[in-house]
Amino acid sequence: ISRDAVCAALKERNVGSSVHFIPLHRHTYYKEHVVGKEEFPVAESIADRMLSLPLFPSMTDEDVLYVSACMNDIICS
Q: Among 37, 39, 57, 74, which one is most buried in terms of CB atoms within 10 A?
């Protein structure tokens, strides 16, 4: 299942998600002046699959269980 499909399925369940990891070599300066993506195959692979799930101090145990159950349902179905 793709990251975008997981994000969409989480959104349907009212669980926010986002992409926060952008490899350094994808930032404008580095793209233009320093390196190319072929030099970082692992970072490239991870960047297209990584997803940030809700994480904040006021999350209750029930919130954590709900997000976990949603993820389990999405990736195991």
A: 74
